[in-house]
């Protein structure tokens, strides 16, 4: 048995123990969906950070910096600064006025059924895209790392899927939160260790480190040796559309994070808005420290391992594990790889619970049954079934896409949909007295369709490949892209806002305006906010 | 559901009355004075980075200390900017909490519900 398998099994054993412990404390809706609202500020902060530091950041950003230098680091910057939107605009009003989901806040003043139905569709869309990306990543990692043990891609995907279903179905939000906390601490520890080892490699001299980053040598596609300064912008985002794509990416991150359902549900797990605020600050400290350290991970992989070697050993996503191997051998490689699995598993569990909560609370209870729970515990039972279904769908799609699928666009898509559909509607319903149901439904629908549509006709899915490109690397639609940018946010976010505003102005809904003061007072003061349940 | 039993509910006129009190107006004004400028500042500061990187790459590549250029230092400064604004917000929010607490107490006392 390989070392990484042993480490991974240890993590699974500990997390299953937590799930068993949590399962006995998850009776009732508030306990199951919001961990009884008793999570402490720092704990929730670590969990929020954990939800955010997904495989896309640990593996993806390290890889982007290793291959594209400074342009990859641009992702790191946006991922932290985005939390200011969460902190200043959405976290506290949401905790004050809502119960389990983002739609709770919308449903105060707007007609609940159409708004919840649309919000639920957009939540499920964002979560599913995010989840498939993580699962394909997990499958690829397992297949590469454990290839000696004979575990293949579909088996790895099913393994991840089954575990996440167990966490969510039996342990609810409490287990999901603790799995996330343990993983976040492991991930921070691994990243700090890796950064120290990188600096030790350069004799703890920053000037030696940055000098090496200034002369990165590799071979280009034609086999020519090139030397590049990796601190110089422009290795990935090139004219004519590079600048616009960078700005568009920035818009998706800054406005999308505050609309990500699996981040928003976290604010319902704490006792009050003040704790929600402190948990965002905790998360920002951890996330900031982590993304600054991607400097050492990414540039370290570029200089110490080199992209020629990474290309031949699993590709961009393997940059961080390969760096660990180069610096401290196979045991450390196994440790970092096990952390990467743990990361994926925890994030996928967080996504599953937010998706199933939205389905059970928004769609089942409030849309289909008009807000009445017919039998005690029905909402939780429906959420458990939904978690099963969501888990199986994600497994199925991940296996169909296969290990070599290009999944970077799925995560970008999740952020773009969240920024274009969810954020405009959340913001307008909190701040605009005139806002109404037609506007909310129009904003959600247009934001969702515009971001999906523009990605479909953009360069991620549409391009003319030379005949030498085969398999999953080929673009889905063999024609020149209609929309020139990878990230649609620069156009789809204004479209989402415009549709929400236009829909509102074209109709009148006096009731929504009458109820505005209630939402205004509730969201700003915390009057009548959901309280933590009695201690167990 | 049992856990909703003690939830504060009030009539529309009661919500309107609270919204019209001087205390609530003070709370909103105190929030606005901090949040609006802070939001505008961070959005402008953040988007300056991709705009300069995209449209003035040569300027951004200017080396400052050894091989470290303006682009990297500006990107790094974004982390500290975010932390500083978050810290200032937490300080300012103590005032929000104090003002909110008064409003909640008055409203709850009026109904005899907490």
Write a structural description.
The complex is a heterodimer of chains A (536) and B (114). Chain A has 536 residues and is an all-alpha fold. In chain A, 72% of the residues lie in helices and 1% in strands. The radius of gyration of chain B is 23 Å and the shape is elongated. Chain B starts with 11 loop residues before the first helix and ends with a helix. The model of chain B is unreliable at 1-5 (pLDDT under 50).
Largest sheet entry of chain B: 2 strands, antiparallel
Order of helices and strands of chain A: HHHHHHHHHEEHHHHHHHHHHH
Low-confidence stretches of chain B: 1-5
Distance between the termini of chain A: 41 Å
Low-confidence stretches of chain A: none
How many DSSP E strands of chain A?
2
How would you classify the quaternary structure? heterodimer
Q: Number of DSSP helices of chain B?
A: 4
**Which class best fits the helix and strand makeup of chain A?**
mainly alpha
Mean pLDDT of chain B: 88
Shape of chain B: elongated
Q: Reading side by side through the largest sheet of chain A, how are the strands ordered?
A: 1-2
Residues in helix, % of chain A:
over 70%
CATH architecture descriptor name of the domain at 3-199 and 235-404 in chain A = Up-down Bundle
Instruction: Give the strand order, joined by hyphens, for the main sheet of chain B.
Output: 1-2
Helix fraction of chain B, binned, reads over 70%
- Report the C-alpha radius of gyration of chain A, rounded: 23 Å
Mean pLDDT value of chain A: 86
Number of DSSP strand runs of chain B: 2
Strand/helix succession of chain B: HHHEEH
- Largest binding interface between chains: A-B, 62 and 58 residues
